[in-house]
Amino acid sequence: MAEHREFLTRRLHSLLGVIPIGIFLVQHLVVNHFAVYGEENFNKAADFMHGLPFRLLLEFVVIYLPILFHAILGVYIVFVARSNTKNYGFFRNWMFVLQRVTGIITFVYIVWHVWETRIQIGSQGADYSLMEGILSSPFMFWFYIIGLIATVFHFANGLWSFFVTWGITQSPKSQKIATYATVVVFLALSYVGVRTLITFAYGV
Amino acid sequence: MAEQKTVTFIITRQAGPDSAPYKETFNIPYKKNMNVISGLMEIRQNPVTADGKKTSPVQWDMNCLEEVCGACSMVINGTARQSCAALVDQLEQPIRLEPMSTFPVVRDLIVDRERMFDALKQVKAWIPIDGTHDLGPGPRMPEKKRQWAYELSKCMSCGVCLEACPNVNDKSNFIGPAALSQARLFNAHPTGEMNASERLNGLMEDGGIDGCGNSQNCVQVCPKGIPLTTSIAAMNRATNIQAFKNFFGSDNAH
Ligand code: HEM
Ligand code: SF4
Ligand code: FES
């Protein structure tokens, strides 16, 4: 297997971006949306997630290790590209650059987010008032908005290239329809996330 | 008589593979319907720069002069294309000529595209038909498929798709789009099909198909209109299946 190591590593990178990281992202945003239905609802949902059996194991296998692998290889992939939108300003080339830019933003954002809402507070789970406290600062609110939009873009556009990497969308027509579908994913997840952040920040 | 119209070229030159590049400007008399190559020929006849300095003639590569050999590719006003098919009337002035940056420069506008042939070797982009005895005629190809395959076979290894690809550069080992599509061409051939797995395994070697990051510039710039991104997606699927066969040891793993 050693002879195809690079190929297999890149395929793993692609797969992990969707399964499990992408699925976790969707789940994370949807569960957090409970905040919109009130503090109690959010805390109940957060407690449920926090009380899942084998929580630490699940977190490592489904979240930390896959993201760590994807992110470290991702930074390397960003580093070996030479963007050339100046001379070749096609739509997909811009998406290529944005995929890389949002990857870096996502990286910074996730590191901070995990530090603040997981590591710093120890083994007790995050609750509504923690998020309320963080997001009531306008700076942090906008930091979270940018981090969220970047992550969701990276996931949605990554889904598009995932379909190509796995040979699902081959014809130009199917790839075009996949573009529209992933735009819908981007808009829908952005709405879910931004709506939640507004509730934490402004209580509405 | 009306004043003689001129055309200005700003050319990035380089004396040899290891020398430093420099720019020279040339003003040459305009002729109707001239292209970049006829402009370069004009400079060769009278190699004097815009400020009157006598210099060495500019070197470039060419062969067919009708956009089928791929030898004359260079970067014209920022984008890579064939200089024989670049009409001066359609270009913004001054016309800037540079060698393609993806390849080592031999001299001036001449580059060494050897890496493209190495890439074709990696994916075994040919059909082995030699034997110790007459192998007889191969299987026939349906006419419809032949017409389809003909489009893929138009690749002239011109290098424009590699130059436009953000993932083909000195920091990455990616072999570029052209060879990926050629593997698809030879895998589609009824005789070539017999060695399909060898080409797929070539695509999976380091620098192979996994280097593609879907910027899709290649399909936009290919002068032959080759559906490179469709080929890449098709080969993505084929290599994934081959990887499963290799790992789980299916009978079809050959
Ligand atoms: C929530 C976190 C993340 C999610 C959900 C995610 C998701 C994805 C998905 C689905 C893909 C498409 C895979 C493919 O092309 O087949 C992808 C690609 C990519 N990701 Fe991420 N990713 C995340 C974090 C990161 C981070 C932190 C980086 C680091 C900079 C990163 C860098 C990249 C790069 C460079 C690609 C493009 C790979 C290529 O086109 O060859 N990602 N990501
Ligand atoms: S695929 Fe097109 S752009 Fe690339 S080398 Fe062949 S002819 Fe040139
Ligand atoms: S000289 Fe052959 S393509 Fe231009």
Automatic annotation (TrEMBL), chain B:
Gene3D superfamilies: 3.10.20.30, Alpha-helical ferredoxin (1.10.1060.10). It is an enzyme of class 1 (oxidoreductase). Its cofactor is [4Fe-4S] cluster; [2Fe-2S] cluster; [3Fe-4S] cluster. GO terms for biological process: respiratory electron transport chain; tricarboxylic acid cycle. Keywords: 2Fe-2S, 3Fe-4S, 4Fe-4S, Iron, Iron-sulfur, Metal-binding, Oxidoreductase, Tricarboxylic acid cycle. Residues 146-174 form the 4Fe-4S ferredoxin-type domain. It comes from the Bacteria. One of its GO terms (molecular function) is 2 iron, 2 sulfur cluster binding. InterPro entries: 2Fe-2S_ferredoxin-like_sf, 4Fe4S_Fe-S-bd, 4Fe4S_Fe_S_CS, Beta-grasp_dom_sf, Helical_ferredxn, SDH/FRD_Iron-Sulfur, Succ_DH/fum_Rdtase_Fe-S, Succ_DH/fum_Rdtase_N. Its EC number is 1.3.5.1. PROSITE patterns: 4FE4S_FER_1, 4FE4S_FER_2. Pfam families: Fer2_3 (PF13085), Fer4_8 (PF13183). Belongs to the succinate dehydrogenase/fumarate reductase iron-sulfur protein family. This is succinate dehydrogenase. It comes from Virgibacillus salarius. The gene is sdhB.
